[in-house]
Specification:
three-stranded antiparallel β-sheet; elongated; alpha+beta; 129 residues; 7 helices
Length: 129
């Protein structure tokens, strides 16, 4: 197998859906026995140990958009889930039918708020975690 450059790897990752990328990260962690979340914990530790106010410690930079319930307009919610993710029709329907479930994982505040607004407009009950 030919060795890929960093740029080639990045281009390959851009083509993956969020779910595929999440599965890749999990597999990477298993194979190499590492945790991708470790740097976040290390970065938060000095702030907590330095006597910083609780407000700064609890400020989050990434959010999960969790679909709690589809509501009355299930088809509209499925359409919004498909628009927000790169899921196919069957996967989006399964996610909506299986609520509660994570629609987007580890996104910034702006993206999370936008997704929440779109899903709520379609009739869903959504929580940011």
């Amino acid at each position: 197998m030919a060795k890929l450059s960093t740029d080639e790897l990045i281009e390959a990752f851009k083509e993956l859906s969020l779910i595929e990328l999440s599965e890749f990260v999990k597999k990477f962690e298993e194979v190499f026995e590492v945790t991708a979340a470790a740097p976040v914990a290390v970065a938060a530790a000095p702030a907590a140990g330095g006597g910083a106010p609780a407000e700064e410690v609890e400020e989050k930079s990434s959010f999960d958009v969790v679909l709690e319930a589809a509501g009355d307009k299930k088809i509209q919610v499925i359409k919004e889930v498909r628009a927000l993710t790169s899921l196919g029709l069957g996967e989006a329907k399964a996610l909506v039918d299986g609520a509660p479930g994570v629609v987007l994982e580890g996104v910034n505040k702006e993206t999370a708020d936008k997704a929440k607004a779109q899903l709520e407009e379609a009739g869903a009950t959504v929580v940011l975690k």
